[in-house]
Amino acid sequence: MADMTSTSTAARPARPRRAPSRTVAPRNWRRRFLAELAATSNVTASAKVAKVSTSTAYEARRDDPEFYRQWQEALCEGYDHLEMTLLQRLREGEIKPAGGAKRGTRVFDNATAFRLLTAHRESAARQRAITENRNTDAILDAIDAKIEKMRTRSFTPVTKEPDQDPRDAQ
Q1: Do residues 124 and 73 touch, judged by C-beta distance below 8 A?
Q2: Spatial distance between the Cα atoms of 156 and 161, rounded to a whole number of angstroms
């Protein structure tokens, strides 16, 4: 048996642990993030534009209900843009460069885009329903206000001079 008294078994001094460093997010990053998310439906690209990590964005979404709501609206808008782009491509077709052309055009993968739409259709439909319901509530509030105004007018006594008989004017 080997001698177990070697220095390899001696206790090593513990390394001091550093607190995890938190980078400070740039000012107004959420506005830039949401704008890019609405344009691209891509969280990673949106975080890059906003100069924050994706974990910062997901943490903010988890901790702030208002940011979560805005995130969902931005995604819904992004999916609407994607859907319109796909429909345009399907209607007009893709322009492909002729053989030997100096400069080509980007070719999009429609199959991937359709898979993305399918995967997020339910969440986009849910957000549309929430938005439409909010719009419906605003419309109903406006109608109620008009009805109340009409009621107020109908219950307000109108002072009217008695009609004069045309024969009395002679």
Answers
A1: no
A2: 16
- Domain parsing of the chain, residue ranges: 28-93+109-154
pTM, two decimal places: 0.49
Phi (first) and psi of residue 37, to 5 degrees: -65, -40
Tokens of 84: 């319109």
Nearest Cα neighbor of 49 from 68, 35, 60, 63 is 35
One-letter amino acid for residue 12 of the chain: R
DSSP state of 96: -
Element (H, E) at 110: helix 110-155
Coil, helix or strand at residue 30: helix
Going residue by residue through the chain (170 aa), what tens digit of pLDDT does each one get? 455 554 445 555 666 655 444 567 788 899 999 999 999 889 999 999 999 999 999 999 999 999 999 999 999 888 888 878 877 776 666 767 767 767 766 666 677 677 767 777 777 777 777 777 776 677 777 777 877 877 777 776 656 555 565 555 55
Contacts of 80 (CB under 8 A, 6+ apart): 124
